[in-house]
């Protein structure tokens, strides 16, 4: 068995020697080109990975800025909403007071008119009574 293995190893070595003689210069050029291409691909891969990492960090930073901006705007909107609600409440109170004041003034005017009418009635009655007394 070891003879068989040794025989195969010898044949493989001889085959490599024959290939080296026949294609030696070209094979070395191809191997060198493959090595260069492999090196270029490795460098390109590393550069691409570094670029992706950099872009990822930039995007994460932008996301944080946008999240902060959204939070700030949301807070501002909440504050504005509360201010608007407070103003509406104040306007509602003011309007209710004005309506009540106008109602009270209207009622006073109505009472005043009724009093004036009463005085006219009383004056009319007095005039009738005076007229009756004169005619008697």
Please explain how this structure is put together.
With 136 residues, this protein is an all-alpha fold. Helices cover 99% and strands 0% of the residues. The protein is built from one helix and no strands. The radius of gyration is 55 Å and the shape is rod-shaped. It starts with a helix and ends with a helix.
Task: List strands and helices in order, with pairings.
Layout: H1 2-135
Q: Count of DSSP helices?
A: 1
Number of strands: 0
Oligomer: single chain
**What is the arithmetic mean of pLDDT?**
84
Q: Whole-Å distance between the termini? A: 171 Å
Computed CA radius of gyration, to the nearest angstrom: 55 Å
Q: What is the percentage of strand-forming residues?
A: under 5%
What low-confidence regions span 5 or more consecutive residues with pLDDT below 50? none
Coarse shape? rod-shaped
Give the class from helix and strand content and strand pairing.
mainly alpha
Element-level helix/strand string? H
Largest sheet: none
Helix content: over 70%
Explain briefly what this protein structure is.
The protein is mostly helical and 136 residues long. It has one helix at 2-135.
Features:
1 helix; rod-shaped; 136 residues; mainly alpha
């Amino acid at each position: 068995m070891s003879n068989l293995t040794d025989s195969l190893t010898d044949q493989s070595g001889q085959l490599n020697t024959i290939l080296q003689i026949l294609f030696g210069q070209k094979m070395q050029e191809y191997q060198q080109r493959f090595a260069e291409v492999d090196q270029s691909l490795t460098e390109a891969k590393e550069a691409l990975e570094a670029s992706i990492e950099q872009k990822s960090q930039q995007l994460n930073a932008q996301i944080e800025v946008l999240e902060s901006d959204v939070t700030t705007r949301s807070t501002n909107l909440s504050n504005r909403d509360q201010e608007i609600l407070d103003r509406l409440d104040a306007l509602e109170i003011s309007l209710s007071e004005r309506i009540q004041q106008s109602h009270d003034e209207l009622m006073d005017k109505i009472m005043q008119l009724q009093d004036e009418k009463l005085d006219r009635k009383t004056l009319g009655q007095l005039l009738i009574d005076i007229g009756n007394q004169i005619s008697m």
